[in-house]
């Protein structure tokens, strides 16, 4: 019983590390856009360690019997890839057809990560930028799954719209010179971003809602098992004099 409780606590701690690791990519671009640290510095000293933690826990989770966390991470990967692909379809239409986007976000991220802003993108920077872009999506879905668990697909929409809103009022948008919500360049930017994130939510929301064996939410899991541990410990204390 003690080993079981220890495993549950270990899984909870590992879950917190996963949440921290997948938060690095979204925060990194905002921090770099705000002028706090160079993107290349953050990629080396923040993103790479975060990736190592994420991959390490992803490998260790099934071996340690952390099936709840393992299923959540797998769902995060599948939902993140599908959701980001859907987002990109809408974003590319807005960028290529309606010219409502100032540029390609993945290409910009790649240029900043490789410190090629004065030279422009190349194959290497584009690969890094797109990889980070998809990992960003995986991170947001992983956070959603761990915090909210399995939900109806449409409940992902307000979550994604919240992400879009924060993006458009953060330095990630304002540092480009188009102002809050991109309104300095017209309303098209805001419409495209919101539609793209609705597509993102539709994509990953359907993955989450259709997942046959999603875990309990982070908070429900921890609180429920913490109460169980307290009950077991109290039972052990009351029974210990009888066994002596």
Topology:
Blueprint: H1 2-33, H2 39-64, H3 67-97, H4 105-113, H5 123-148, H6 156-169, H7 171-174, H8 188-210, H9 218-243
Helix pairs in contact: 1-2, 1-5, 1-9, 2-3, 3-5, 3-8, 4-5, 6-8
Overview of the molecule:
This protein starts with a helix and ends with a helix. The chain has one domain. By secondary structure, it is mainly alpha-helical. The protein has helices at residues 2-33, 39-64, 67-97, 105-113, 123-148, 156-169, 171-174, 188-210, 218-243. Helix 1 (2-33) packs antiparallel against helix 9 (218-243) and helix 3 packs antiparallel against helix 8. Mean pLDDT is 87; it is low at 228-244.
How much of the residues is beta strand, in percent? under 5%
> Largest beta sheet, briefly?
none
Number of strands: 0
Helix content: over 70%
What's the domain count?
Answer: 1
Give the key terms.
244 residues, mainly alpha, globular, disordered C terminus, membrane, transmembrane
Give a short overview.
It is built from nine helices and no strands.
């Amino acid at each position: 019983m003690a080993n079981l409780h220890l495993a549950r606590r270990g899984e909870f701690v590992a879950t917190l590390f996963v949440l921290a690791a997948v938060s690095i990519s979204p925060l990194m671009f905002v921090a770099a856009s705000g002028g706090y640290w160079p993107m290349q510095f953050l990629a080396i000293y923040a993103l790479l360690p975060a990736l190592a933690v994420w991959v390490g826990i992803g490998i260790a989770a099934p071996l340690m019997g952390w099936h709840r966390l393992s299923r959540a991470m797998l769902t995060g990967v599948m939902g993140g890839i599908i959701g980001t692909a859907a987002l990109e379809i809408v974003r590319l239409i807005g960028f290529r057809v309606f010219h409502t986007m100032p540029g390609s976000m993945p290409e910009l991220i790649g240029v900043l990560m490789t410190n090629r802003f004065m030279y422009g993108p190349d194959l290497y920077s584009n690969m890094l930028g797109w990889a980070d872009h998809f990992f960003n999506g995986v991170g947001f879905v992983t956070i959603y799954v761990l915090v909210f668990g399995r939900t109806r697909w449409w409940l992902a929409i307000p979550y994604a719209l919240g992400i879009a809103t924060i993006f458009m009022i953060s330095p990630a948008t304002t540092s480009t010179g188009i102002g809050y919500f991109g309104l300095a360049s017209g309303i098209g930017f805001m419409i495209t971003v919101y539609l793209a994130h609705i597509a993102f939510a539709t994509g990953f929301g359907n993955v989450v809602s259709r997942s046959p064996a999603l875990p309990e939410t982070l908070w429900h899991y921890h609180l429920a098992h913490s109460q169980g541990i307290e009950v077991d410990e109290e039972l052990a204390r009351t029974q210990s004099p009888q066994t002596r």
